[in-house]
Amino acid sequence: PQVVERCVAAAGYSVGEFAALVFAGALGFAEALYAVKVRAEAMQKASEAVPSGMLSVVGRREANYKFACLEARKHCESLGIENPVCTVSNYLFPDSRVIAGHLQALEFLQENARKYYFKRTKMLPVSGAFHTRLMEPAVEPLAEVLKSIEIQKPLLCVYSNVDGKKYMHSKHIQKLLVKQVVSPVLWEQTMHSVYERKQGTEFPYTYEVGPGNQLGAILKQCNLKAWKQYKHVDALEDEEAVDT
């Protein structure tokens, strides 16, 4: 309880942003859950319209992700694909990105990984190119839901995936949650915003809540000093302990 009361900031990765906003008092739990349901169904429907996916990439310092994506799009055009999509959809930490788009583009990048200075590539087990314009059909359904629910000003700072900055007011939240569906997740930039402080200032405790500690691993790559104050709280394990 003391940790919750003293919390000064929150952030959530992709759909986790809804959880961060619930925690901050900006969204009600039931309303947020319904919005997430509509969002998920709309994004799944958009995914089924075009064979697409997401590719996790760890690159060398020389890697030029924009150039690689440009050449992948040109490859798709040579295959007869009109207006192909291949772009960075998630900025994780220095030298690590997720690229999303048409499957043919991602396959091209994997086949030519060495040319683009990619050390490791891995297709993610997802059904579509999330956080790209291929998700545009999901924008309107989510926008309509967010118009119908009450959004409050957060009780503490919540950082947006879209620009890595703090939400200012309820309309700002409504606008950026919709924009997030078709915009890259700027998680690396968000980490820099959250932990920016004067030299010599102590870093706060950071808690990752939920299954897995992927965000902690990313934080370690972004800011080692901040990571030293990191703790993981597995909500599922806590529930099991209560049940037994």
Describe the structure.
This protein is an alpha/beta fold and 244 residues long. The protein folds into two domains: 2-44 and 137-243, Malonyl-Coenzyme A Acyl Carrier Protein, domain 2 (3-Layer(aba) Sandwich), CATH 3.40.366.10; 51-128, Alpha-Beta Plaits (2-Layer Sandwich), CATH 3.30.70.250. The protein is built from eleven helices and nine strands. It has helices at residues 2-6, 16-23, 29-49, 65-78, 103-111, 139-148, 170-180, 187-195, 214-222, 224-227, 235-243; strands at 9-11, 52-59, 86-93, 96-102, 118-123, 157-159, 185-186, 206-209, 230-233. The model has no long low-confidence stretch (mean pLDDT 94).
Give a brief rundown of this model.
Pathway: Lipid metabolism; fatty acid biosynthesis. This protein is an alpha/beta fold and 244 residues long. The chain has helices at residues 2-6, 16-23, 29-49, 65-78, 103-111, 139-148, 170-180, 187-195, 214-222, 224-227, 235-243, and strands spanning 9-11, 52-59, 86-93, 96-102, 118-123, 157-159, 185-186, 206-209, 230-233.
Domains (count) = 2
Specify Rg, calculated over alpha carbons. 19 Å
What summary fits the major beta sheet? 5 strands, mixed
For the record, give the distance between the C-alpha atoms at the N and C termini, rounded to a whole number: 22 Å
Number of strands: 9
CATH superfamily label of the largest domain: Malonyl-Coenzyme A Acyl Carrier Protein, domain 2
Instruction: Tell me which CATH architecture of the largest domain applies here.
Output: 3-Layer(aba) Sandwich
Give the integer mean of the pLDDT values: 94
Shape: globular
Order of helices and strands: HEHHEHEEHEHEHEHEHHEH
CATH first level of the largest domain = Alpha Beta
- The name CATH uses for the topology of the largest domain is Malonyl-Coenzyme A Acyl Carrier Protein, domain 2
Class from secondary-structure proportions:
alpha/beta
How much of the residues is beta strand, in percent? Answer: 15-25%
* Number of H/I helices: 11
Order of strands, widest sheet: 5-2-4-3-7
